[in-house]
Automatic annotation (TrEMBL):
The lineage of its organism: Eukaryota, Metazoa, Chordata, Craniata, Vertebrata. This is C2H2-type domain-containing protein. InterPro entries: Znf_C2H2_sf, Znf_C2H2_type. The keyword DNA damage does not apply. The keyword Nucleus applies. It comes from Mus musculus (Mouse). The gene is Zfp747l1.
Length: 417
């Protein structure tokens, strides 16, 4: 396109007729503030011959906290709320507050029931088209946003921005309780719930509460019966693609996530994250009954059922109840599904889960990878070690509810009853 200044009698005539107020307003709009760079105006002729004015806005508004630059002062002011935590825009329907007016507008559409953007693959609806576009990548697996520093790819530009802050060493938001730092304030706020135990997000269908809004969203998909991400090997469905990707490692046996501290490998990034917390000695959640500590509050909640005997997860097929959701789901898959896709190459035994196959294989190989740190005795399964170590410590955490006699293992207590 050829750049040139366009002069025409028509344009001069219009400028002569333009009211003084409009001219002054335009001058005010395009005038730089004190200490600000002069915006550059350029003129170009479009194919239709109509003159177009382009404001080449330099990013002259800098954040004095993180150095990020913006083309408009209003955008900088909105950005500053991410540092101060101020949320001046309040929803009149539910009193929830937001740092941006655009976020409030999007939120209010939820109250009005407006979700005009629907996914053609799974039918899920969204208030914004941008969220639909980001959601579509979960079906295609496409990750078009690449990090120029490490070439890691992402399906959302926001995920890439958050990731790049790690390369820049930006961790501006620190938890006052454990010292852990985060690149985003919203992530810190969500993390703080792990210390307080607060769960402000409640499911309207079953009243279950969550510490993160994203966890509530994933949970609500279960009520809607949405499991659009299906495993091609065993047919198991998932509400989120990331959970499916994690699950796929159970079939391949791949363990591509390595701990930089001890070189131990894991099949899931979430497993690596939990493991690394052990190296950092992060175990802020303590059991009031036995003093055992945990890296996550959810692990403490599951552990407490050992003392209370609570078993909230009951099988509708056989009536058997479980203290943990994972054990309940495993029971349904192993006992009632009849699907056994994992076969032993030595004896042909088939299993519903890859971990049972790995455990079985140790019978043939003789492998005992888990050793007691007190006496060095080795075991095939890690679950055998806690019960064995009680022979050294003398701990008996399972009391009989009838007579009070205490036992080292739950099975011994059950047999006694």
């Amino acid at each position: 396109m050829c750049r040139t200044e366009v002069h025409s009698d028509c344009r001069h005539e219009k400028e002569r007729k333009r009211p003084r107020e409009e001219t002054e307003a335009m001058q005010k709009t395009f005038s730089p503030e004190p200490g600000q760079k002069e915006p550059q105006l350029s003129f170009a002729v479009s194919p239709s011959g109509v003159q177009a004015t382009v404001l080449r806005a330099d990013k002259c508004h800098d954040c004095n906290l993180c150095g990020k630059s913006f083309a408009r002062r209003s955008t900088l002011e909105a950005h500053m709320y991410t540092h101060t935590g101020e949320k001046p825009f309040q929803c009149p329907d539910c009193n929830k507050r937001f740092g941006r007016y655009s976020s409030l507008s999007t939120h209010r559409a939820i109250h009005r029931g407006e979700r005009p953007h629907q996914c053609p693959d799974c039918g899920k609806s969204f208030t914004q088209r941008s969220k639909l576009v980001a959601h579509m990548y979960t079906h295609t697996g496409e990750k078009p946003f690449q990090c120029p520093d490490c070439n890691k790819r992402f399906s959302r530009p926001s995920s890439l921005s958050t990731h790049r802050a790690i390369h820049r060493g930006e961790r501006l938001h620190q938890c006052p309780d454990c010292g852990k730092s985060f690149t985003q304030r919203c992530t810190l706020v969500a993390h703080m719930y792990s210390h307080t135990g607060e769960k402000p997000f409640q499911c309207p269908d079953c009243n279950k509460r969550f510490g993160r809004y994203s966890s509530l969203s994933s949970h609500r998909a279960i009520h809607r019966g949405e499991r659009p991400h299906q495993c091609p090997d065993c047919g198991k469905g998932f509400t989120q693609r990331c959970t499916l990707v994690d699950h796929m490692y159970s079939h391949t046996g791949e363990k591509s996530f390595n701990c930089p501290d001890c070189c131990k490998s894991f099949g899931r990034p979430s497993s690596l994250s939990r493991h690394r917390a052990i190296h950092r000695m992060e175990q802020p959640h303590r059991c009031s009954h036995c003093g055992r500590t945990f890296t996550r509050r959810s692990s403490l909640t599951s552990h407490l059922r050992v003392h209370t005997g609570e078993k909230p997860y009951c099988c509708a097929d056989c009536g058997r109840c479980f203290s943990q959701r994972s054990a309940f789901r495993e029971h349904q898959r192993v006992v009632h599904s009849g699907v056994t896709p994992f076969s032993c190459t030595h004896c042909g035994s088939a299993f519903a889960d890859s971990k049972y196959l790995r455990r079985h294989m140790r019978i043939h190989t003789g492998e005992k990878p888990y050793s007691c740190p007190d006496c060095g005795r080795c075991f095939r399964q890690s679950s055998e070690i806690p019960a064995h170590r009680r022979t050294h410590t003398g701990e008996r955490p399972y009391p009989c509810p009838q007579c009070g006699r205490q036992f080292r293992t739950k099975s011994a207590m059950t047999s006694h009853q």
